[in-house]
């Protein structure tokens, strides 16, 4: 198709297509040009920054060059001034040497102080070991006391068995006394009967003898004369001897009876004395346990005090007796015993003896009597509980006690039987703020209190050791800080000295310039001494490892724990070496 054959529509289409192509080409060109421009701008910015840095560096170099030229010019024109500076430098060197010697002395003193601090630290460690050994000894003592408690329990059981045996023996001796008394009465009755028989026999013999004698005298009186008196005596002599023998026999029987009666009376008196003594002992014990309320209270408090002492508690230190307090109304109230706890709190223990009804229950012969006595015993225990609860010890002024009071029952069987008879008796007291305890339940509580006091004493010793360790650590840190400052000072002095030496004997120094004077002047008699820079290395960085922890500790109000305050052995050696 020839161009002349194109229609206006085709021309318009071609025109639009061309415009679109041109627009796309222009857009692509603009996009490429924008990217290129951004890259060029970035490069330009980098070049400008490099140029600026180069200019700054050039200015610095020019300023340094001008300074060096000025310094060189000043050094070249000020020979006298430089000589003066040399003398001043020598004087400064001498002064620095003196300062160095003085600082060495101070360093030696600091090392001695560090050794003293280390010795104190070792002493503290030994004290800590001694405290630990004492703690172990206390643990051994606790074990020993536990064994003693077991022995005392066995001894108490043995005493109770002995008391029962004494009661049985008293009953046996009482029965024997009754039997002996009955036997004595029978023997005395038999003796009286024998004496009556002897008296009757004696009277009968006397009457017979008198009758016989009268008969003989009557029959022979007429025939006998005074010359037959001897014959009459011979005749009466056998009768007289028989009567005397019979009288002697009667006297012997009477004496033997008296001796037997005396021996029997002595034996009876001995039995009666033993019985009276046992009755007195039993009466005293019964009076202590079943007497009036004051005696029972005193005995119960004595048993409670003994339990406190057996548990390792010390009066006035761990507990107080008869402590007085006041309630909100100003009324005075007094506790039996007040147990002190390490945190300032208290535990109240009150002793209550309930025995009369329990004794009736033990001696009851029928089930009904036992039931009635045990019911009375439980009621007595409840009355004690109510009485303690009404005193409201826990709310007294100055009292820091839990919301309960320990009621101590010193008679273990009475305590056990009461809880057996009424299962909820313990809960009854607990609801009223009264906890029932006996020897077996109170001793573990008191031993726990004793252990708390032992731990408190150990903690106090540990705190004291911790404070001492902190003081020693702070002293070591101060020594390290001083050593660090001394090292920094020595380093600064060394740097100043080396810069002065470099300025004096360096390539551009005065030595090289004035050395030619020795060749020009004939008056020169000495050579310039050789001066070398001194390189002294101080491990102040290692000292900072010791100094930094105390700075962090000073920023807090409380000291760190005891185990963190103790200086590790390697850091202690670092401080010494520094």
Give structural notes.
The chain has 578 residues and is mainly α. Among the domains are: 154-288; 291-437, no CATH class. Helix content is 77%, strand content 5%. It is built from 14 helices and seven strands. The protein has helices at 8-77, 79-220, 229-290, 293-310, 356-362, 367-391, 412-421, 425-431, 439-505, 510-514, 517-520, 540-554, 562-565, 569-577; strands spanning 319-321, 324-326, 332-334, 337-340, 346-351, 405-408, 434-437. A five-stranded mixed sheet has the order 1-4-5-6-7. Strands 2-3 form a two-stranded antiparallel ribbon. Helix 9 packs across helix 12 (540-554) and helix 12 (540-554) packs across helix 14. The longest helix is centred in the first third of the chain and has 142 residues, at 79-220. It is elongated. The chain crosses the membrane at residues 6-29. InterPro entries: DNA_recombination_RmuC. This is DNA recombination protein RmuC.
Instruction: Give the strand content.
Output: under 5%
Helix content: over 70%
Estimated structural class: mainly alpha
Q: Describe the main β-sheet briefly.
A: 5 strands, mixed
Number of strands: 7
Distance between the termini: 105 Å
Gross morphology is elongated
Q: What sequence of helices (H) and strands (E) makes up the elements?
A: HHHHEEEEEHHEHHEHHHHHH
CA-atom Rg in angstroms = 62 Å
Main-sheet strand order equals: 1-4-5-6-7
Low-confidence stretches: 556-578
Mean of residue pLDDT values: 69
Number of helices: 14
Protein name: DNA recombination protein RmuC
Function: Involved in DNA recombination.
Family: Belongs to the RmuC family.
Keywords: Coiled coil, DNA recombination, Membrane, Transmembrane, Transmembrane helix
């Amino acid at each position: 198709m020839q161009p002349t054959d194109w229609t206006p529509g085709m021309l318009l289409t071609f025109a639009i297509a061309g415009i679109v192509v041109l627009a796309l080409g222009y857009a692509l060109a603009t996009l490429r040009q924008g990217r290129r421009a951004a890259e060029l701008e970035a490069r330009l910015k980098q070049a400008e920054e490099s140029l600026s840095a180069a200019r700054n560096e050039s200015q610095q170099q020019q300023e340094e060059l001008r300074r060096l030229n000025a310094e060189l010019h000043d050094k070249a024109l000020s020979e006298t001034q430089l000589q003066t500076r040399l003398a001043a430098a020598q004087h400064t060197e001498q002064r620095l040497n003196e300062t160095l010697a003085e600082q060495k002395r101070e360093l030696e003193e600091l090392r001695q102080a560090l050794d003293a601090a280390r010795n104190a630290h070792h002493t503290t460690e030994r004290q800590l070991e001694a405290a630990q050994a004492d703690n172990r000894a206390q643990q051994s003592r606790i074990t020993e006391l536990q064994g003693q408690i077991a022995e005392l329990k066995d001894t108490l059981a043995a005493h109770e068995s002995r008391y029962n045996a004494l009661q049985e023996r008293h009953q046996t001796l009482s029965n024997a006394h009754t039997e002996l008394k009955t036997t004595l009465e029978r023997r005395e009755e038999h003796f009286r009967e024998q004496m009556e028989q002897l008296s009757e026999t004696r009277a009968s013999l006397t009457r017979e003898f008198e009758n016989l004698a009268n008969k003989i005298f009557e029959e022979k009186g007429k025939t006998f004369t005074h010359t037959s008196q001897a014959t009459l005596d011979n005749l009466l002599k056998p009768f007289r001897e028989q009567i005397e023998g019979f009288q002697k026999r009667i006297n012997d029987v009477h004496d033997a009876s008296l001796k037997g009666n005396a021996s029997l009376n002595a034996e009876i008196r001995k039995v009666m004395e033993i019985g009276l003594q046992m009755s007195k002992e039993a009466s005293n014990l019964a009076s202590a346990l079943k007497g009036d309320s004051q005696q029972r209270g005193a005995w119960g408090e004595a048993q409670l005090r003994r339990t406190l002492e057996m548990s390792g508690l010390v009066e006035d230190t761990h507990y107080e007796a008869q402590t007085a307090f006041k309630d909100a109304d100003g009324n005075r109230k007094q506790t039996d015993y007040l147990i002190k706890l390490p945190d300032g709190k208290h535990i109240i223990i009150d002793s209550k003896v309930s025995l009369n009804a329990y004794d009736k229950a033990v001696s009851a012969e029928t089930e009904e009597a036992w039931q009635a006595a045990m019911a009375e015993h439980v009621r007595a225990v409840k009355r004690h509980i109510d009485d303690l609860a009404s005193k409201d010890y826990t709310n007294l002024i100055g009292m820091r006690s839990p919301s309960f009071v320990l009621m101590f029952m010193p008679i273990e069987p009475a305590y056990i039987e009461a809880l057996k008879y009424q299962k909820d008796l313990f809960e009854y007291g607990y609801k009223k703020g009264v906890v029932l305890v006996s020897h077996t339940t109170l001793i573990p509580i008191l031993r726990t209190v004793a252990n708390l006091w032992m731990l408190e004493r150990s903690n106090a010793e540990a705190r004291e050791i911790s404070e001492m360790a902190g003081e020693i650590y702070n002293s070591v840190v101060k020594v390290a800080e001083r050593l660090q400052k001394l090292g920094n000072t020595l380093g600064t002095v060394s740097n100043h000295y080396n810069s002065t030496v470099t300025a004096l004997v360096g390539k551009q120094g005065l030595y090289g310039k004035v050395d030619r004077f020795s060749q020009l002047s004939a008056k020169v008699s000495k050579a310039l001494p050789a001066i070398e820079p001194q390189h002294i290395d101080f491990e102040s960085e290692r000292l900072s490892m010791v100094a930094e922890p105390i700075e962090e500790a000073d920023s807090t109000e409380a000291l760190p724990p005891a185990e963190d305050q103790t200086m590790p052995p390697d850091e202690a050696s670092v401080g010494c070496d520094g």
